[in-house]
UniProtKB/TrEMBL annotation:
Recorded family membership: Belongs to the glycosyltransferase GT106 family.
Compartments it resides in: Membrane
InterPro entries named among the record's database cross-references: FucosylTrfase_pln, GDP-Fuc_O-FucTrfase
The keyword Transmembrane helix is assigned to this record: yes
Chief location: membrane
Pathway: Glycan metabolism
Keyword Flavoprotein set for record: no
Protein source organism: Gossypium barbadense (Sea Island cotton)
GO molecular function: glycosyltransferase activity
Official protein name in the record: O-fucosyltransferase family protein
Membrane topology: Single-pass type II membrane protein
GO CC annotations on file: cytoplasm; membrane
Keyword terms: Carbohydrate metabolism, Fucose metabolism, Glycoprotein, Glycosyltransferase, Membrane, Signal-anchor, Transferase, Transmembrane, Transmembrane helix
Alphabetical GO biological process terms: fucose metabolic process
Length: 534
């Protein structure tokens, strides 16, 4: 012990002694760390953490790759399959407010052509999913009461409203009495439910979902119905709680309004599927309507060529309601203004029509439609079936017919005898037009109203049949620039093609909006809800 102290104290020479000790400790470090104990646990822990981090990086890289590969091939080709030349080497960026049209250099591609204008979107990965499960089948529990329904609006507004009432009756465990239809709308059509829909099919198809009766049973006929207009865009809980309590109390409720009484989103899947079963399966038109529609479709296809169904909503009531009078005379504009003032339930009386047009919310004019279809690439011999009533204005459809002479309606395709049962029955004629539009090769609508929503949603339900959805806000900017000579026809047409390359009615998820009233309608796009991905 004395020698050790002397060695460590001479001249302060302790460093050699500590170095020796350090080397001896280092020599023992690596054998010790692999022995069971604390050091081995620490090594394993950090090794596992490193492995987990690498696995997460690999996962995110794989997901991004799969997402890129999942892009629909036909849409990818469509968006890029345009003939690009140096003179028209411009890009359009679709947005809410502007079109970016500055020159931007991009690699020139070989000359390509757009897919056939009649080709529908590629939807091989999707299928209908509206089947009811065993637990959704109606039970033998006593009904909470009876619901009387007064459907309001035109045909398609009533159709979607009735579909909602079917789902509401399910939520409330109520019996639905066959709905009555609106006879006081713009067309004052006296037709009732049995005149337009196959009521026996309606009852039988829904018998496992809800109970439907023709009229109130005698025990309830003397009860004064409780009048109620349900809150618009309500969730299922509103009906299962508040409305069900009222039904149990009064036994008979009369819903005075049916339009948009259920939310588009946030409902249980069985309720969404029931809405589709009601809308697309149960509400079948009468044989009389379907037979006339089939005759018109056969005549349109007599030369085995495809046809367009065009919902040209350039009608007096719609123009008055929206305040749109572009290309109309001052006298016609004043006539629309007087009509708008005379309809009490139209809240907006003073409207800037030109501003509405710039915002893309006006129906397209016949001339705008002709230019649009030509720019998309439809040849002048294309057959067009107009799904609408009388086109307003002294020129009517002249601007469209000058470019596309093969214009048809139910009036010039059907004989007088065939149309006689439909005289003064605008809702029945609308049902004929609806059927023709549903079965058309391409459906184009010029205003996003009730019929446009109903038909495009039904076409998606039937396999995403091609539906061209005009981007009116950007189209108006383009056509105005062309009319002013700021862009050539070639540049205009190219931009319209690109702008609408992916607006063809393909599979796009419906998403909730910030404002319920302005979000995408469930019946315009039943995906998700009634369409599923394989």
């Amino acid at each position: 012990m004395a020698r050790r102290r002397v060695i460590e104290s001479v001249d302060g020479n302790v460093l050699p002694m500590r170095k020796a000790i350090l080397f001896r400790r280092k020599g023992r470090f690596w054998p010790d760390i692999f022995r069971p104990g604390r050091y081995m646990c620490i090594l394993m822990f950090w090794g596992l953490m490193t492995l987990l981090f690498m696995m997460l990086l690999a996962k995110f890289a794989l997901l991004n790759t799969l997402h890129d590969l999942k892009l629909d091939q036909s849409e990818f080709i469509t968006a890029r399959s345009v003939e690009i030349s140096i003179r028209t080497n411009k890009l359009i960026t679709e947005g809410d407010d502007i079109i970016i049209s500055e020159f931007k250099k991009i690699p020139l591609l070989p000359k390509l052509t757009l897919p056939d204008i009649w080709t529908k979107p590629n939807t091989d990965l999707y299928y209908k999913c509206v089947q009811r499960s065993s637990k959704d089948i109606i039970s033998g529990d006593p009904t909470n009461g009876y619901i009387l329904v007064h459907s309001n609006g035109g045909l398609n507004q009533m159709k979607t409203g009735i579909s909602d009432m079917v789902a509401i009756a399910k939520v409330m465990n109520a019996t639905l009495v066959l709905p009555s239809l609106d006879h006081n709308s713009f067309w004052t059509d006296p037709s009732d439910f049995k005149d337009i829909f196959d009521w026996k099919h309606f009852v039988e198809y829904l018998e496992e979902d809800i109970s439907v009766v023709d009229h109130l049973p005698p025990a309830y006929a003397s009860i004064k119905p409780h009048q109620r207009a349900p809150v618009s865009y309500s969730k299922a809980s509103y009906y299962s709680n508040q409305m069900s309590s009222l039904l149990k109390k009064h036994k008979v409720i009369n819903f005075t309004h049916t339009d948009s009484r259920l939310a588009n989103n946030g409902l249980p899947n069985p309720i969404q599927r029931l809405r589709c079963r009601a809308m697309y399966e149960a509400l079948k038109f009468t044989d009389e309507i379907l037979e006339l529609a089939d005759k018109l479709i056969t005549r349109l296809r007599d030369d085995d060529k495809p046809f367009i169904a065009l919902h040209l909503r350039y009608e007096k009531d719609m123009l008055a309601f929206t305040g749109c009078s572009h290309n109309l005379s001052k006298a016609e504009d004043e006539e629309l203004r007087q009509l708008r003032r005379s309809v009490r339930h139209w809240k907006e009386k003073h409207i800037d029509g030109e501003e509405r047009r710039r915002q893309g919310v006006c129906p397209m004019t016949p001339r705008e439609v002709a230019v649009f279809l030509e720019a998309i690439g439809f040849p002048s011999d294309t057959k067009i079936y107009i799904v609408a009533g009388n086109i307003y204005g002294q020129d009517g459809v002249k601007a469209l017919q000058d470019k596309y002479p093969n214009i048809y309606t139910h009036s010039n395709l059907a004989t007088e005898d065939e149309l006689s049962p439909f005289n003064n029955r605008q809702n029945k004629l609308a049902a004929v037009d609806y059927t023709v539009a549903l079965e058309s090769d391409v459906f184009v609508f010029t205003y996003d109203g009730n019929m446009a929503k109903a038909v495009q949603g039904h076409r998606k339900y039937e396999g995403f049949r091609k539906t061209i959805i005009p981007d009116k806000k950007n189209f108006v900017k383009l056509i105005d620039r062309m009319d002013k000579g700021l862009i050539s026809w070639e540049e205009f047409s190219m931009k319209v093609k690109i702008l609408h390359a992916n607006r063809t009615g393909g599979a796009v998820l419906r998403k909730p909006g910030k404002v319920v009233k302005s979000e995408e309608s469930f019946y315009a796009n039943p995906y998700p809800g009634c369409i599923c991905e394989k």
